[in-house]
Request: fold
Amino acid sequence: MGSKLKLITIFILICSASLSYAVSSYTFDADVDTQIYEKQPSFDYSNHTTFVVGSFLDGGVNFDVQGLLKFDVSSIAPGQTATDAFIQLHITNRTSTAGTLSVEAFKIGSSWNTSTVTYPDRLTLPEGADIISYLSYSTNGGSTWQDIFKNNPVYGLPDTPSTYEVRIYLNVDGLSLIDSWISDSSQNYGILLKSPFNNSVTNYARFSALEGGSGYATLHLTTEDVSGPAVPEPATIILSLISAVSLFIKRRIN
Reply:
């Protein structure tokens, strides 16, 4: 009776040490995208095939341009929580010889419309901290990705080649933001992309937009269903069985 109790105890302890929830993966196309430009604050960019992040030097003045994105995740059932997420974008043009481009991403706190949003519109001002964990980019169709981590405190997109793919991986704050969208889609106002530093030089990245028909932004998301029961990982069950069999053999030998 004692050996059976030991076997059961070992099995329970090992299984409970590595429980997991049901995992799902999703890919969402951007629902809307646009840009806002400091020099042309009221211009309607909703029909443009690209949007820009960075700055333009004009007449000795540096003008800021920011990108706005929104993804509809309302098809995900409440109770799921984001464990990993990145936004993939296609860069159609990069400023030549301007150096790396700093990129940050922020939560947008209020609703906006692609045809009426303006640069000085306070509704679009970013809220909270930068939600990027790191960037990754590929120059050959996505087969090889190079990671760019935060560096005092800049994420730098290279200025060459002129076209490539980039992934924006979200940090804990970014995952929490997506969780809030899943819980209440009415609070989903999207993400703003901006460059934090203007160094008196034209430096920008131009990204494919929805109106271009291809290469537009996509959100890649992995979730766990915390509303359901947690179950042992398959490897954990196997380890438990091996431990139980080993103990049984040891008891038989002794």
About this structure: The first strand starts at residue 19 and ends at 20. The radius of gyration is 24 Å. The mean pLDDT is 83. The first helix runs from residue 2 to 16.
